[in-house]
Amino acid sequence: MNESAQLPLDVIAHVMACSPPSVIAALMTTCRVCYDEGPRHLLQGGAILRSMKDVELFTTFMFAPGTTRFPLLKQLEIDVHPFVSAGFRSSESVIEEACFMRLLRCPDLCLDTLILHASDSLFDSIAKSKAAFGGLTTIKHLVLRAGRDTSIYCPAMIIAVVQDLPAHLVTASISCQPFLGTSSVLTSHRLLERHADTLKQLRCNRFQEIGQSFLKMQTFGMMCDSSVLADLNTISLVRTFPNLSRLELIPGDGHTITSASYYDPAEARVIRRRNKGNHGRDGSWPVLNECLGEIYTLHTLGLSCQVTKLHIWKHLDAVDHLPLLREVLSETHPTELSFGTVNLEVLDAAMSTLREQGYSDLRTLRIAVELTVSGNERDGQTTLNSIRDILLPIPSPLRALTLHLSISGPSHTTPSPGEEGFQVVSQYALEALCRDITNQAPFLERLTVKPVPKYVPDWPDLDQRRDEDSDNDYDRYARVDHDISDDSSTLMETPMGLILTVGGAERIRMRR
User: Fold this and answer.
1) CA angle (190, 196, 201) in 5-degree steps
2) Which letter, b or e, does each residue of 413-451 get, where b requires 16 or more Cβ atoms within 10 Å of its Cβ?
3) C-alpha span between 247 and 286 (Å, rounded)
4) Which residues have C-beta within 8 Å of that of residue 263, sequence separation ≥ 6?
5) Model confidence pLDDT, tens digit, residues 151-192
6) Pairing mode of beta strands 400-410, 113-117
């Protein structure tokens, strides 16, 4: 390219930052500046190796003559079917194994995140696996998944890799626990013993006490179902994670947003009494900053400590949930409560509970309401009026209220997958709802009302959604805040100083 006609580097960088990988690759063929700048953008989101061919091509790309690309690679996902199958090793597999070994042992490689699919026996010996992964000294975040084909799962190989990681991990997500087994030797915590002094976040399928404390652990999440709750000793959690800030009781069913089908009230009461007795005898955390889980799980756990932020995963969809909610609120005294519902009767009962019980600590309330109406703005307005009548009067301790409203009608065209309707409330109707609430609740300091699309599960994926799209974004593994709010709506200051948040007009007819 003629130097006089060459674009400035900052312009090229901006174009590449907004371009898909195919465009970046094409731009890299035009000039040396683009050739040097392209890898920075191609590797920004990490790399995924899904086949032995990927390994070969990616190795060639990374070792291109005259380049220094390894420091740019911070995240690597390995989802490659094994080089060794039933003891058979082809000449191609030997070549691919050599490429992979060369890639992982490069001294310039400084990975921050490793996502490893545990069914993949990448090498023909544990010694080679240790040699390949043992030099990854910079890894801070580990994601260990069950993989696509558990019939070829090799637990000894993956255990050797994880236990010998020389890095000091900060976060880990291990979703292959059912395949590792339930013995204490193979628990997630055994795998991560050497990282006990650095690990701050851990999510796994199953918990089992190993007699070692993770003193820096701030966030712990585990998948919860009836078998886990029956075996769980909550005092063991307190001993293992004495300084915990956030406890996630992750639903075992990744497909539904309504109540659990495994719940047995009689069995749950027995477990709850046992847990509360243990807490009364041996103590609990003085306070948890956040606790998240289904209402059944939260109730069964029988926490005996204050929880600053209580987030109920899965909607409250039956009035029978309200007695459980009352008990949980009375025991945890949250200052912030988040829940959702698909039923106005349940919403009415929940608000009545908050008013009647007078939870004096509660300052912030977040509610997601998901309803379907016949499909016109008059019906949407009627529904908003019903919601207003249910919410008022606002419990006086509250200082902040957030409403996420998904009030939609049936689609008038053939919908795409997951696209069932559209929002049927107007900007005027939302503003009127805000006025009605603020006029009758002058003590509120912040009111947020947002139209949103259909609610989707927001809890971490520990392979309970393995039958769904397997190419989800990485952020689900690293997310720490599962708050239902965001900052994308319009803020309006009222003369009284109250901050109102109302979704922008362009979002009102948001397709679902």
Assistant:
1) 95
2) eeeeeeebbbbbbbbebbeebbebbbeebeebeebbbbb
3) 13
4) 226, 296
5) 555 666 677 777 778 778 999 988 765 555 544 334 555 678
6) unpaired
